[in-house]
Amino acid sequence: ETGVTQSPTHLIKTRGQQVTLRCSSQSGHNTVSWYQQALGQGPQFIFQYYREEENGRGNFPPRFSGLQFPNYSSELNVNALELDDSALYLCASSLTSGGGETQYFGPGTRLLVL
Amino acid sequence: RKEVEQDPGPFNVPEGATVAFNCTYSNSASQSFFWYRQDCRKEPKLLMSVYSSGNEDGRFTAQLNRASQYISLLIRDSKLSDSATYLCVVNMGTGGFKTIFGAGTRLFVKA
Predict the structure, then answer these.
(1) B61-83 per-residue burial string, b: 16 or more CB within 10 A, e: under 16
(2) N or C end of chain A, less CB within 10 A?
(3) Do the Cβ atoms of A98 and B97 come within 8 Å?
(4) What are phi and psi of B102, to 5 degrees?
(5) pLDDT value at residue A96
(6) Model pLDDT for residues B41-81, shown as the tens digit of each residue
(7) What is the tens place of the pLDDT at every residue in A37-88?
(8) How far apart are alpha carbons A42 and B97 in whole angstroms?
(9) Number of inter-chain CB pairs under 8 A, A vs B
(10) Which residues of A touch B (CB under 8 A)?
(11) Which residue of A has its CA nearest to B99?
């Protein structure tokens, strides 16, 4: 096990609603990245948080937002949910930011938008 | 053109076979490279990092060719337990961090 935890494990929402997903990083890790993985696709990078600040962002609209807390845990918030937001949401923690760091993934949250 | 491209497969091989996967990337500023393994309905798990000098871990060998912008993974003596999706991963740390995953290559190892 990586020591990265996520909650909830599963979630069902309806279109237009808002959702908050949570991630606790591995002990000693100060960086958390979030990914969206649709069925049959590789994970798509949403953003990364390093020491409570956004450190990089993929091609996702502003309704995807995040936070990192002083204990380095993190939240992903998605507003105005759309059907296409149905996916597995993964968070990954790493020892620090930087291109060479290995990322360790949590088990993910499966979101279904109806 | 996708930033990271992999042959989706599936690759169907018998136990004991040697199988090779390739992955190409488009951004020459890419800094680090990894192979991850993902089992069905599970999270990706790190298989190995990839270096220009090559990296070997038991039956697995990974190689990076920066000039041609591709990375490879070789699996020797395939086991049934190697059946999974193999994801090529490229990190870019310039102008803000970014990680790009390939779509993955499916491998089925048959008895």
Answers:
(1) bbbbeeeeebbbbebeebeeebb
(2) N
(3) yes
(4) -75, 170
(5) 76
(6) 899 999 999 988 889 999 999 999 999 999 999 999 999 99
(7) 999 899 999 999 998 999 889 999 999 999 999 999 999 999 999 999 999 9
(8) 18
(9) 65
(10) 2, 33, 35, 40-45, 48, 50, 55-58, 90, 97-108
(11) A45
Other Cβ atoms within 10 Å of A5 Cβ, number:
17
Contact call for A45 and B99, based on CB within 8 A: yes
End-to-end alpha carbon distance in chain A = 32
* Interchain CB distance below 8 Å, A42 and B43: no
| Chain A residues lying within 8 Å of B32, measured CB to CB | 99-101
Which residues in chain B have Cβ-Cβ distances shorter than 8 Å to A99? Answer: 30-32, 91-93, 97
A87: which 2 tokens?
């996916």
